[in-house]
Amino acid sequence: MSTRTLIRGGLVITAAEETHADVLIEDGRIVAMAAHASTVAEGWTADRVIDAANKYVIPGGVDAHTHMELPFGGTFASDSFESGTRAAAWGGTTTIVDFAVQTVGHSLRDGLDAWYAKADGKCAIDYAFHMILSDVNESSLKEMDLLVEEGITSFKLFMAYPGVFYSDDGQILRAMQRSSNNGGLIMMHAENGIAIDVLVEQALAAGRTDPRYHGEVRKVLLEAEATHRAIQLARVAGAPLYVVHVSADEAVQELTAARDMGLNVFGETCPQYLFLSTDNLAEPDFEGAKYVCSTPLRPREHQEALWRGLRTNDLQVVSTDHCPFCFTGQKELGRGDFSKIPNGLPGVENRMDLLHQAVVDGHISRRRWIEIACATPARMFGLYPRKGTIAPGADADVVVYDPHIEHVLSAETHHMNVDYSAYEGKRVTGQVETVLSRGEVVIDEREFTGHAGHGVYTPRATCQYLH
User: Fold this and answer.
1) What's the whole-model pTM score?
2) How many CB atoms lie within 10 A of CB 151?
3) Is 124 left (phi over 0), alpha (psi -120 to 50) or beta?
4) C-alpha–C-alpha distance, residues 365 and 377, integer Å
């Protein structure tokens, strides 16, 4: 049975243009677009017509950095693939790229298969995987080539978390050399974990145990230093580099300098760094634990540098690094020792709204909103033009967005499986109304109509920005 859906009368916004157009969808794909009320559009018939008058019609969001069910610090991220992808849909995100984890002593294949199994049949929206390399050796380096062929085209390394995910400079260089040959993209958590561990130990010994010290020991300069070092290693290897969750002015400066030299260096930031700060980490009665993530929240003055980086394209992507832990029973593991607080924030449901608020506030344009949240992540990770745009031939991942509705972000109303909101009480303008994933309506006028297992695994091509 062929089904046709027509989205009529909205302002279609992509990274490239804004047009008043009707969008015709058939069998999960966008098949045609035409000017609203044109003779072409008037002739279209459909099984279902969605009225988008006075609303935006935008591509579904692509969140290229999530951690569903991630084991961390003796516990697990509180969102499963089922709950996390449902929450993503509520927030207008129709594709996530999550991280499969290699554990030390095991193969990449073991880690990848475990994540395939976690997600299979559970997701409400489409999904793909990056691979976390925790154990760089001859065997895992060879496996990288096989994974690229399989559509896992990006590999994350950590300069932080000694004893867990950490790789030394030699391992990082080897992985970069491999990726320079196989077309993969190295993603880097750039913080000097060896130095940070010294500062953690010293802070705890001096009785500085509250959540705010998490931010104080993970110093801006240790993010900037690691970012610089990662860039130089990538230059030596002749490899592209994508630095995740950039939080500080000095780190942006390192990326800007590299890009000014014409290097294939890219940067991502997250809503928490754009909207939250060390003021949150310092909230009394251990409330600051809710905001513990790495890289940490920074003093408010860093926000302007991040917005500027997004405007000048020295930062290209806003992802969430969605990695939720409940305050009760999980964040509380670090009472009396900030280093035991599980690192991570919930956010997959809030990203599109927060970035629309940034449009309202004058930080970015509407097209830039779509660029950093949909089109660029899709291109960066080999999903474009199937994902990230509205054009004939693309998957019908489409959001009807009401730019006028005001609502308040709150744990009372969100759909993420976590007992607090990082943005509790924040009033935003703009809300997702209807969401289609491959042509199927999964949010229908603020009602969830999707189901677990609709989302399919999506293999990726290599990064589309490499020259």
Assistant:
1) 0.98
2) 15
3) alpha
4) 17
CA dist., res. 454 & res. 435, Å (int): 13
On the CB side of 219, CA atoms within 13 Å amount to 13
Predicted confidence pLDDT, tens digits, the chain (467 residues) = 679 999 999 999 999 999 999 999 999 999 999 999 999 999 999 999 999 999 999 999 999 999 999 998 889 999 999 999 999 999 999 999 999 999 999 999 999 999 999 999 999 999 999 999 999 999 999 999 999 999 999 999 999 999 999 999 999 999 999 999 999 999 999 999 999 999 999 999 999 999 999 999 999 999 999 999 999 999 999 999 999 999 999 999 999 999 999 999 999 999 999 999 999 999 999 999 999 999 999 999 999 999 999 999 999 999 999 999 999 999 999 999 999 999 999 999 999 999 999 999 999 999 999 999 999 999 999 999 999 999 999 999 999 999 999 999 999 999 999 999 999 999 999 999 999 999 999 999 999 999 999 999 999 999 999 96
